[in-house]
Fold aminopyrimidine aminohydrolase.
Amino acid sequence: MEERGGQREGARMIDTWINNHRQMYDRATRHPFVLSIRDGSVDSLSFKRWLGQDYIFVRQFVPFLASVLLKACRESEEQSDVEVLLGGIASLHDELSWFKKEASKWDVMLNAITPQKANQDYCRFLESLMLPEVDYTVAITAFWAIESVYQKSFSLCLEASSNTPAELMETCQRWGNDGFGQYCCALRGITERRLGTASEDVMMMAEGVFVRVLESEVRFWDMSYGE
Ligand SMILES: Cc1ncc(CN)c(N)n1
């Protein structure tokens, strides 16, 4: 039963973090840029800026996800964690192809784009989480938070009441769809389980990266407004 308690305790911990950081959480998951896609008022320049920067981010996300997989192989007590993470790596292959197709649709020259400061800072943060001394629990918490912010954000644009332009629907469906939602739930389940048996230090570090992800996502969305 202790294990069960662990999972429930981990779930309560995440709910507490979200409540304690509600304002930052809402700024990350209901950002004006995303709300402008949802209400159809987004201008194409902002969308193209976001698209180009996100391509650069996803390129850096690949080694980060590989590092989380390696930590899972070395530290996880649950074999199924590796299977969940492998699913994520497989979908990144398809995601990079999608970015190239979407970029050509919008005349965005992906190889001519330079990362803006918020993107550079976010990628440096991901690099720091790849270090071997960073605990698997801390890394999986960051990974779940990163994926969950996009899933919650873009699912807003798929709601019945949304006015998302047809040409942006594919982008919103990529991260807002139910399948990605279930994947984020699986990542949250892993995170809860690991938090349930984590030391006080690891719990504190995990909360720290949760907040740092929220801050990074807000700055990332802000980039769509230009430097
Ligand atoms: C900035 C950011 N955060 C999250 C995701 C979803 N992997 C993304 N593509 N870009």
User: Anything to note?
Assistant: Residues 44-75 form the longest helix (32 residues). Residues 54, 57-58, 61, 146-147, 150, 220 surround NSP (CB under 6 Å). The CA atoms of residues 73 and 82 lie 7 Å apart. The two ends are 52 Å apart (CA to CA).
